[in-house]
Amino acid sequence: MSLGYVIQRLLIFLLVIWVAMTLIFFLPKLVPGRDPVMERMTMLMASGGIQAEGITRMVEAYRSEFGLDQPLFVQYLRYLSNMIRFDFNYSLAQYPTKVLDLIALALPWTIGLLSVSVILAFILGSLAGGLLGWPKTPRVYGYLLGPFLLMSSVPFFLIGLLLIYVFAFKLKIFPIGGGSQFGQLPSLSPSYILDIVYHSILPASAIVIASLGGWALPMRGMMITTLGEDYVILAQARGLPPRRIFFQYAMRNALLPQITSLALSMGTIVSGSLLVEAIFRYPGIGSLLFTAISAFDYFTIYGVVFFIILAIALATLIIDLIYPLLDPRIRYQKQ
What we know:
It is built from 13 helices and no strands. By secondary structure, the protein is an all-alpha fold.
């Protein structure tokens, strides 16, 4: 891999981030008559949070505080400057809390839940797909193809609702929602860690079950394609054990496209599974984004979406740079 290619990928990475930041800023501005401060104040007034008297002066004060009374170009430059410094301003819905503080509180919950769920679904789904494509697999495994097709088309949140109904509402084995027991102070004690794991079992199970088909079906297709390659046929002709051919020759090469998908999935970990976290009331990034959208909290939306785009772009950059190490046949330079 040449230095020029690395520089090119870094420039493309920065360009993607800049274009995404620009779109995040201008798209809400295209909606006519949309004033986030006025909408927030109207919602508070409707709920009895503030009185109608003096609301105009309050809106003007908030617009001045957030810089919304400046020309659009000035707002854009100020916005870019803040984004570069990871300063996403104050939350409109939870003022005077900073958006970055809200993200810092929610991010560890999402990373913990989604990283374990995605990796577990990747391992189980890829192994199941490889076995479905392997000709020496017992025929009984072929009956798994139908359930995998079904699971690949069912949204996460529907499986989450089903798990809540069966295991939380009917059987009462797991809690209905939340990240930990209400009122319990965070700590590194074994009891608190076990409580977090206990509360994360249902949302993690919903993500794993819904993701298995998405990992297994592409892996099955790649395994069938790989079995026709010369190196697999040569390994079989040499009389190598089927287990060794399966893992070292077939699975190892069929996994390469899956690794690309895994990298992109790890990038989307920051966004969380929005509706899964919402229905389980799990205190992650997905719930934070859902709450921000519901409350028209534009600054929080800006911050969360920026982190999502940054994570996906960074994951794509990393997989581009390390792919030649995973597959020596790939070269990013002219011969």
